[in-house]
Amino acid sequence: MRLPTWLAQHLAALRAVLVFTVLLGIAYPLAMVAVGRIPGLDGRADGSLISVDGRTVGSSLIGQSFTDADGNPIVRYFQSRPSAAGDGYDPTSTSASNLGPESVVDTIATDPEESTQSLLTQVCARSRAVGELDGVDGSRPFCTPDGVGAVLAVFRADGLTGPVTRVVSVNQTAPATPFLATYEGVPVELAQPGHDYVAEGGIVTPIRGDAPADPAVPADAVTASGSGLDPHISPAYAELQVNRVARERGADPAAVRRLVEAHTTGRALGFMGEPGVNVLELNLALDREFPAR
Amino acid sequence: MTTTTAGVIFVLSLVVSLVAIYRPFGDYMYRVVSGTRQSRVERGIYRLVGVNPAAEQTWGVYARSVLAFSAVSILFLYAFQRLQNHLWLSLGLDPVMTHGAWNTAVSFVTNTNWQWYSGESTMGHLVQMAGLAVQNFVSAAVGIAVAIALVRGFARQRTGHLGNFWVDLTRITLRVLLPIAVLGALALMIGGAVQNLSGGTDVTTLTGGTQTITGGPVASQEVIKELGTNGGGFYNVNSAHPFENPTSWTNWIEIFLILMIPFSLPRVFGRMVGQNRQGYAIAAVMAILALASVTLTNVFELSGHGTVPQAVGAALEGKEVRFDVSNSATFAAATTLTSTGAVNSFHDSYTALGGMVPLVNMMLGEVAPGGVGAGLYGLLILAVITVFVAGLMVGRTPEYLGKKIGAREIKFASMYFLITPALVLIGTAAAFATGNNATALNVGPHGLTEVLYAFTSASNNNGSAFAGITVNTAWWNTALGLCMLLGRFLPIIFVLALAGSLARQQPTPASEGTLPTHRPLFVGMVVGVTVVLVALTFLPALALGPLAEGL
Q1: A46 and B194: CB-CB below 8 Å?
Q2: Which ranges does the record mark as transmembrane (chain B) (predicted)?
Q3: How many CB pairs under 8 A join A and B?
């Protein structure tokens, strides 16, 4: 019996899909799994797990949070970057924040559960917290002293033009003090929960302020990584934390600094990527050499 | 060494490596697609599939073979996802819901790899390796096969035959993709990419918390995801995940894998039409556009304009320390210049203009160098349009490589060019008209960019995203699935029709008045036509999105 051409063609296609599934979908990946069993490669193919006293404590490639149950930093440990993966460093729900460069207006709802922070406020709040933790100036451009985005909604008489009629600091609510007393002669109000000042016609106006362009708290300390699992921090952020960690462990800062250097990966071949400090490995080494008192 | 210097050397090292492999690797691929001796394994496959490797196909049969193979693949992948809970290695995951399974099936068969889902919480290991990753290989091979068929149309004369799809598919998969995949997977594993069948290891962290270290056949999928310009990550965060892209040097390898086939295919074109300089001209067009794009992305990202990047002091949101800003920007350019769509950083958090460049890369039709195969046929279409425009200027019948570009040919080329802009703009408008744009995470111009990016990515079969937008709804999955399907197969049909029409012609000998298509003048004209066509089509939409935000 001769099949119609179109049917024969689709049967050939089906057979091709099955043949390639066996070859490329079963044989090839399983062969690579087998290759991954080769001694020397097996640890890496299995996720570069780290064990301490026979107990697996994590992976050298996957970052961890060094915070207590309430999310507060445990001060004897170097802290990782902020993370948007689940509740932080959750490999089963990896994620970035995906907030854009002009995400500057918080949603302040009457129900605090429904309020959301803009990326700018997240950055400002983190910077302030890290500054307090490590005893440096946490101020940043476009941030208020109380650690939210310094953003005004400016209402003008004719919409986009004309004299200023009303100014609201959109990310600050009572009992805060407006970060600016007046703007173009008009007193700055605090935001009321439940209002969308942009929809009401206010022009979003971020205020630079006089914070240094090169803040004391490094950039990686105030931004979430793409994966939410970044195992590294920058050498600058590690340096910022050296004194605190040394003090908490009663160790010589110079010795802690040497450990940081030992766990810093430079650029591959001298030009690929940027140097990073592996936080989990560093903290494990600290626990070994300077156990907490 | 400063960050900028390191970033520049990073790009230069990629350029030098791609130049170095252009001839040897291009020549190797030429031998693969033009050879007639079949290995024993290949003969076995032809027997199992039931095709005669010596039988040549007309353009219609070739196209129907592509469509039959792709249709069966979509159904197979759909069923695979719907039944995953009954299969091994499903990790206890539920079957994928209907509109999601449709979207993903289309997505991987069309070489798009748009992902509405998180790999780690939606797809079991078997679906990933025996379903999705198989399409990473064969959808790439389909793209290359179609490009080769078009080149045969230029190279052959007075024939209806364009080769045999099944032979092209098999030889490209077995002789080009698979060997490089094996070597690349090994390299990534040395770097630390995971390759096991583990369902996850629960650990107690240093501070007493719990963490599940995920497993899976990642390295084997990661390498073909880049090499085949597919882009579908094993995990949600794609190549930003340390298990997919563990180090700064695996990052270099992944970018190189993305670019190696598309940038070497012009050599195959040059060899097949018997004039290597024609291949150099096409490669030059690709290189000019690509270098401009990589440079612009780096400049915009490193200068860090915008409120949040200025507050931070760098455009570091959504980027990893080990890649930092520059190597992330270079990856972003490479992934959108091709049809890859893998990401090692999150484009949604890029500076407004830095995020616009990847969008424009896709709008260019992904021709610099474009997806495997798709980039070459896309650029040859643009070359055809260029000789037509040039012919109009001097009042001669345009010809390319001795083949006349008549009414029939230019119709196919124009139809090819018009499909994706139509899908992108109609799709974006439909999202706003129906209120489905409300699932965007960001507001204002950035929200528009998220919607525009989604339709641009799907229609051009890229698969990267401004990932803040939620697309896991029936409307989005259906609409983007349609865009991917039409954006892949309508152009392929027109390309093959054009190939059939070209192959039938008797070449006209070059004369005084023939426009030489290997000189810098022609290269410049193709670049110009590409940029102008795209600018005219998309500038209004860009003005409302990234330009409004960034200027």
Answers
A1: yes
A2: 7-25, 61-80, 87-109, 129-151, 172-194, 249-268, 280-300, 374-394, 415-433, 479-500, 521-543
A3: 383
* Residue A103, in any domain of the structure: no
Per the structure, the count of domains in chain A is: 3
**Ramachandran class of B287: left when φ > 0, alpha when ψ lies in -120 to 50, beta otherwise:** alpha
A275 lies in some domain: yes
Q: How high is the ipTM of this complex?
A: 0.96
**Number of domains, chain B:** 1
Helices (H), B50-193: 59-82, 98-109, 119-122, 125-126, 133-155, 165-172, 178-191
Q: Quick check: A293 pLDDT over 70?
A: no
* Euclidean distance between CA atoms A205 and B354, whole angstroms: 22
Probe site for chain B from A6, A9, A24, A277 (most B CB atoms < 10 A): A24
**Nearest CA of chain B to the CA of A199: how many Å?**
10
Name the more confident of A276 and A69. A276
Mean pLDDT in order along chain B per 10 residues (551 residues): 94 98 98 96 97 95 97 97 93 94 97 94 95 97 98 96 97 98 98 95 94 96 97 96 98 98 98 97 98 98 96 97 97 97 96 96 94 97 95 87 94 96 97 94 92 97 93 96 97 98 93 89 96 91 93 81
Q: What's the one-letter identity of residue B201?
A: T
Closest CB from A20, A56, A102 relative to B306? A102
| Same domain, residue pair A92 and A232 | yes
Residue A153 forms part of a structural domain: yes
End-to-end alpha carbon distance in chain B: 32
Picking from A178, A206, A234, the residue at the C-terminal end of a domain is: A206
The predicted model gives A262-291 an average pLDDT of: 96
* Domain span at A231: 49-97+226-289
Across the interface, whether the CB atoms of A19 and B316 are under 8 A apart is answered no
